[in-house]
Amino acid sequence: MNKERSPYRHPKHDEIVRLVTGGMNDNTVAATLNVGRRAVARVRDILGLDPARDTTTAEEKLARHLLPVDEQGHTGWSGRYTTSGVPMISHRLAEVSASHIAFVSRAGREPVGMVKADCGVRDCLTGAHLGDELDRRKLRMQERGLYGLAPQPWDVCPKGLHPW
Questions:
Q1: Do residues 44 and 26 lie in contact, with contact meaning Cβ atoms separated by under 8 Å?
Q2: Rounded to an integer, what distance in angstroms lies between the CA atom of residue 18 and that of residue 46?
Q3: For residues 69 and 73, what is the distance between their CA atoms, to the nearest angstrom?
């Protein structure tokens, strides 16, 4: 069933067409022209164009909300937090912790286990201050070596639930 379109055109229809066909996403067009997002979506629909996709990378979204590095070398966060206080980024219809993105940017690999700031500042997002389970395990083994202890005296966790 083919729906007939209303002959109504938005007063800023031509301006919306120019920006939409120029590659601008709906939210930016709406903010630029001070119109509703639905008006932009309607014009896009009239033109037969697919909805604009957000091509922003997770690293760009992270950089958008990072605060400048303070005198101690810690980077703060100005973005959204979860109810438990974890800095979060919405990326590709998923919620990802900002520390996860910062760690991947620094290390070039996916983290194993939780990513935590080892500097003592709870929400520090400086890449060099973040570590995952592998980093923390490596540090523990180095400390054991400094004290002359065996590298790892156990093969499983103290409760015997999973390997170390």
A1: yes
A2: 13
A3: 5
